[in-house]
Amino acid sequence: MPYAATWTNGNAQGRLEGGAHAVRDDDPAEAAAAINRRRRLVYLAEQDFSGQVAPDEPVRAAAVATQTPPPFRNFRDNLTDEVLCPAAGGLGGEPATPSAMDWLWPVAGADENKILVASDPAGAEVGLLDQLNGSGDWTDADLAGGAAVRAVHFNELRQAIEWIRRGRWALPVYFSGGIFSMLPNTPWIGDCIANNGADELRSIGLVLARTADSPARGLVAVTALPATRIDVTADTDCTVELYRCCRAIDFTADPPTWNEYDPSASSAWTAPGGAGAGDAVFIGSLALTANVTGQLSNAALVAAVQALIDGAEQNILIRRADTGSQTIGVAAELVVAFEVDSPPN
Q: Is the pTM of this model over 0.90?
């Protein structure tokens, strides 16, 4: 569903109007939920705001403005310090995953899809706070000395949340499993492919689009956009085919073979090599020049990435489609352009 924020308390645009809307207890609760949603998107754990703003309790200035750190300032700091500036690579791996996370300006115009930063933007960036009020900071940034939280403060917070909705994550593909027709019942080394016309070595890789936490962290409840692409590099001129692998793979304890995706359970591929019906969905092919990154972006890739986002197995299969005597080293990175779905905020 396209993004459209819905706030319980406010006018038709979701804004509090002075003299018409009092700040209510569900206002910070909704803001906390929206911020935590974005924390999960950048692979951070949720933050517990309940100690400062209790459910079903009236909101007082002291509850929102004067504790250390003040919860309302904490809302703001989460957006500008942790959500807009996420620490890439926090999940480990080699290379680190995700390798980059950029929020993008979602408003149509000359600046659309420029990288969104908190303030002081460079030429290819948009400053969230500069757009918000032209000052490069929040209104009453410190809210110190018992200052009451006013409608303008909640309106700014809501607007900032609504703008932080479009992103571009770079996710390495870890080609951890090799499947080799010459040794069909033996796991092989990933990161390489081969095809001499008689035997093939294919590789299967993991993409960590989301984690197994509950609730999951990463790309959940978002829509993949047409700008999504996969970058592939090979060390030899070749043509490769890419597939979304549909089978559950245990790369560590029970790696796949040419004949079986789950050897311990004797679970066979529909077709040996893992590209049969039910095994994999074809994405597309690339003609690669040695050590030059090729890019694939098409509707099939967007559909494959959407399937990963929606809960499918997070695996990519790559094979050499032409023939030659070389064993080829390969690397890939999936660049996911997305927009947050509604609801929730």
A: yes
Q: How many separate helices (H) and strands (E) can be counted in the chain?
A: 6, 16
The helix or strand, by DSSP H or E, that contains position 193, with its residue range, turns out to be: strand 192-195
Which residue reads 């939280």 in tokens? 149
Q: Concatenate the DSSP letters of all residues of 196-224 into one string.
A: -SS-EEEEEEE--SB-SSSS--BS-SEEE
Indicate if 300 and 153 belong to the same structural domain.
no
d(CA 317, CA 104): 30
Helix ranges, the chain (H): 26-41, 61-65, 71-77, 128-133, 151-163, 299-309
Which residue numbers in the chain have pLDDT < 50?
Answer: 54-68
The total number of structural domains in the chain stands at 2
260 DSSP β-pair partners: 268
CA distances, 192 to each of 60, 106, 205 (Å)? 61, 39, 11
Same structural domain for residues 233 and 153?
Answer: no
Residues 6+ away with beta carbon under 8 Å from 345: 5, 6, 7, 30, 33, 34, 37, 161, 162
Q: Output the pLDDT for position 188.
A: 96
DSSP 8-state code for residue 148: P
What is the domain extent for residue 123? 26-87+116-163
| pLDDT for residue 50 | 60
Tell me: do 71 and 142 sit in the same domain: yes
Asked if residue 2 belongs to a domain, the reply is no
Please give the pLDDT value at position 60: 45
Is the domain of 82 the same as that of 178? no
> Do 146 and 47 share a domain, yes or no?
yes
